[in-house]
Amino acid sequence: SQKSIAAIPGDGIGQEVVPEGRRVLQAVSQKHGIDLEFADFDFASADYYQAHGTMLPEDWFDSLRGFDAIFFGAVGWPDVVPDHVSLWGSLLQFRRSFDQYINLRPCRLLPGVKSPLSGYGPGDVDFYVVRENTEGEYSSIGGKMFEGTDREIVVQETVMTRTGVDRVLKFAFDLARSRPNQHLTSATKSNGISITMPYWDERVKVMSEGYPDVVWDQFHIDILTANFVLKPNNFDVVVASNLFGDILSDLGPACTGTIGVAPSANINPEGSFPSLFEPVHGSAPDIAGQGIANPIGQIWSGAMMLDHLGETGASTDVLEAIESVLSSGDASVLTPDLGGRGTTSSLGEAIASTIVSQ
Amino acid sequence: SQKSIAAIPGDGIGQEVVPEGRRVLQAVSQKHGIDLEFADFDFASADYYQAHGTMLPEDWFDSLRGFDAIFFGAVGWPDVVPDHVSLWGSLLQFRRSFDQYINLRPCRLLPGVKSPLSGYGPGDVDFYVVRENTEGEYSSIGGKMFEGTDREIVVQETVMTRTGVDRVLKFAFDLARSRPNQHLTSATKSNGISITMPYWDERVKVMSEGYPDVVWDQFHIDILTANFVLKPNNFDVVVASNLFGDILSDLGPACTGTIGVAPSANINPEGSFPSLFEPVHGSAPDIAGQGIANPIGQIWSGAMMLDHLGETGASTDVLEAIESVLSSGDASVLTPDLGGRGTTSSLGEAIASTIVSQ
Ligand SMILES: CC(C)[C@H](C(=O)O)[C@@H](O)C(=O)O
Ligand SMILES: CC(C)[C@H](C(=O)O)[C@@H](O)C(=O)O
Question: Which residues, other chains included, contact B30 with Cβ-Cβ below 8 Å and sequence gap of 6+?
């Protein structure tokens, strides 16, 4: 059956890595007889903003909601539009409007990728960050008072709902249950953030009662970031609020070598709306336009998309091809961040042709 | 002239490391002819809470405000009193009531301490985290609604004031100006936290105009934690909100080996109230009572206290003694977290006697 995919490359290196993601998806679809149909969208970009004065057209919701998934690059080009305007006007809007309340981000030490931490090899680090993706610290309630005076004050509300907290905890506990170690870690800060975080802890405790088979613990976010560095092999599934999950899902990939390879899935588990798949990295203005961005985060996000669409065989094929190309250590295809002298395309091409010949 | 110090060991390993801190302070004071007078307080502890039902006596403010400084261990014993109750009832109360609006935390790779990051040696990493310490995400405004129902909702306000933001920025820019690299990094998250963090950025920009000699940049907190791991030698002075500073000042010390050696100073720069000196680590229930806690975080906090009291020579002496004992690699005095088989006392004693014989 046909699957329709909305492709939104966005800004900067998003424009460079999305084509490589599509190249690999095309190769693996052909091999597995999957019918992927892509539609291209130019909104959610600084170019679109410059032409229209908004990040999205008025009918964006209806244009996108019928797709089976959204394949997203990166958004953000602060020279043209401030980040909070571009992000709240696109990506953060998608997450909330399409109720993609799970942001799932694997952290895995891959072969051929050098970890900045000494003493760990491929396979030693392998965990998921499950991030709440629609509420919490990313709130739109708040404002400014006594503007422009010495008494100026700015407030912003963190908002947690029982529905919002429980559903991400349930997803995380289910995921932990499905894994060999059945271990869940909750990120908190209930000693300092004294209203919302104790509530988070309370709901974790209630949820855990339905999962006697899952071993769980909790750490305050400060010492948890320290433990990501000191004991990265201690984690299996880490569940966190929107902000804490954001932090941990950049730190985790950094501990496994480079955020250039890290993928993410913004999931609406009920399938009421399309889910969105994007690399963890941003638009990277500093290296944009040079053709040297690592496309693996985007390609791996494509594998997560295939998985979500039920194409697990194809998804596994993509992951195996990524690992095989990384293991080869072939400097002529690998991008500079991986120690090579290849380009975005040479790396995408190598992965695509590995799939064909696998 | 006499300096009066309030000693508050608190809970867990606080009880074990404060005596070692005092031993070292005694030794260095004797050597430099400094007259330090200690007074002991048993409040701000779970024991006190069990006996009195509160963390502090009613007159705590008046009892403490006349001291020149507070030498603090650690507080928190969740089996007896929930962390947010014990912390808001003591440490966080002190910080706010004594307007200790600067939390200064050095991160330095010391000789003899193994960093989990490969490729860095002593001297390569040497920066300060300057944390806002009285407002921001650590707020007491918020609450719960529709309690106990499916519609349950919890909110908590982040509050930033111009006064609060500007004064910590000023301190950080001044500190950056005084250092060889004159480099300041601001921690933000203005792409996601769209009201308070853009305000923070705005104030950084305004403040920077008074410091043309300081080179500054800003990173979103997610990628900043990644950069602590990937490029720890890129930092000089990092200024951050209360929560972000809390995170960065645990992560930084983890990147330099162990949070057991990390000190902190909660400073009221105007001297209207006593400042408070405490290790970054907590009460560590898991190792409390075994006599194996590393006292260096506490001892180094003592050095920061001497510095604050104007005794810079004595402060330098303590730091040199710490480095010398660490460099010795003497496993019989070093604590287990440093790879030794010594105890809290053996390490404190070694540092004290090094000072005497220096
Ligand atoms: C114990 C806790 C409330 C405290 C904080 O978050 O400030 C601690 O982590 C610290 O860094 O001093
Ligand atoms: C770009 C930014 C708003 C976004 C976030 O904070 O969610 C990004 O960091 C991410 O992790 O997807």
Answer: none
Ligand nearest to the CA of B103: 1
Q: Tell me how long chain A is.
A: 358
CATH class of B1-100+273-358: alpha beta
Task: Label residue A231 by pLDDT band (50, 70, 90).
Answer: very high
A253 vs B: CB within 8 A? yes
pLDDT digit string, tens, across residues B258-267: 899 999 999 9
Q: Provide the pairing of β-strand B142-145 with B153-161.
A: antiparallel
Backbone Cα Rg of chain A: 20
B254, A162: Cβ pair inside 8 Å? no
The token duo for B117 is 């990051």
Q: Smallest Cα–Cα separation from A191: which of B152, B135, B90?
A: B90
Best CA proximity match to A71, nearest among A30, A129, A17, A133: A17
Annotated active-site residue in B201, B250, B330, B337: B250
Cα distances from A238 to residues A26, A117, A221, A244, A276, in angstroms, run 33, 20, 11, 10, 21
Residue ranges of the alpha helices (H) in chain B?
14-32, 46-52, 60-65, 83-88, 91-97, 162-178, 196-208, 221-230, 242-255, 296-308, 312-328, 344-357
Q: Top-level CATH class of A1-100+293-358?
A: alpha beta
Ligand 2 site, residue B222, Cβ cutoff 6 A = yes
- Closest chain A C-alpha to B350 CA, distance in angstroms: 27
Collapsed DSSP state (helix, strand, coil) of residue A48: helix
Residues B280, B2: Cα–Cα separation, whole Å: 27
Alpha carbons B297 and A239: distance in angstroms, whole number: 30
Instruction: Tell the residue nearest (CA) to atom 4 of ligand 1.
Output: A192
- Euclidean distance between the first and final Cα of chain A, in Å? 24
Show the CA angle centred on residue B246, arms to residues B326 and B223, nearest 5°: 95
Query: In chain B, what is the straight-line distance between the N-terminal and C-terminal CA atoms, in Å?
Result: 24
pLDDT on residue A358: 86
Top mutation candidate among B8, B55, B86, B87 for ligand 1, by most atoms within 8 Å of CB: B87
Judge if the beta carbon of residue A191 lies within 6 A of ligand 1: yes
Is B166 in the active site?
A: no
Asked if B118 reaches chain A (Cβ–Cβ under 8 Å), the answer is yes
pLDDT in tens, B184-223: 999 999 999 999 999 999 999 999 999 999 999 999 999 9
**Is it true that B1-100+273-358 and B126-255 share their CATH fold?**
yes
Rg (CA), chain B: 20
Distance CA A284, CA A301 (A): 17
Superfamily of domain B126-255: Isopropylmalate Dehydrogenase (3.40.718.10)
Burial B165-185 (b: 16+ CB within 10 A, else e): bbbbbbbbbebbeeeeebbbb
What is the residue extent of each domain of chain A?
1-100+293-358
